[in-house]
Amino acid sequence: MEEEKTKNPNHGGFRPGAGRKTKYEKTVVMRVPEKYKEAIQALITHLDDTAMIDKSYRASESEPVYLRSLQDKKQHIIFRTEPMLPKT
């Protein structure tokens, strides 16, 4: 005869604190046109790479990202991060 398996109440289902952790404070799920996926990933990478920029650093520009608009026109996008200098 087969032994019946007892169910473990701690296996599966919702558990507080379970799941993959993110390096960001809060995240959201958003529908984005597939053709913009690479540009959005490049923006996030640029923001992560330039997070240390402050008044001691000069502005930083990303490499161009080439894409097509929703109207299928060729475009390239460059992201620029520069420090916010205090108003004098």
Structural class of the secondary elements?
Answer: alpha+beta
Query: Which runs of at least 5 residues are low in confidence (pLDDT < 50)?
Result: none
Question: What fraction, in percent, of the residue positions are helical?
Answer: 10-25%
* Biggest beta sheet summary: 2 strands, antiparallel
Tell me the distance between the termini: 84 Å
Strand order of the largest sheet: 1-4
Radius of gyration: 23 Å
The H/E string reads HEEEE
Mean pLDDT: 84
Shape: flat
What is the strand tally? 4
Keywords: Plasmid
Region (Disordered): 1-21
Question: What would you say this structure looks like, in words?
Answer:
- The chain is of the alpha+beta class and 88 residues long.
- The protein has a domain at 34-81.
- It is built from 1 helix and 4 strands; from the N terminus they run αββββ.
- It has one helix spanning 37-49; strands spanning 60-61, 65-68, 74-77, 80-81.
- A two-stranded antiparallel sheet has the order 1-4. A two-stranded antiparallel sheet has the order 2-3.
- The chain starts with 36 loop residues before the first helix and ends in a 7-residue tail after the last strand.
- Residues 1-21 are annotated as: Disordered.
- Keywords: Plasmid.
Features:
alpha+beta; 4 strands; flat; two-stranded antiparallel ribbon; two-stranded antiparallel sheet; 88 residues; plasmid
Describe the structure concisely for a colleague.
Keywords: Plasmid. Helices cover 15% and strands 14% of the residues. With 88 residues, it is an alpha+beta fold.
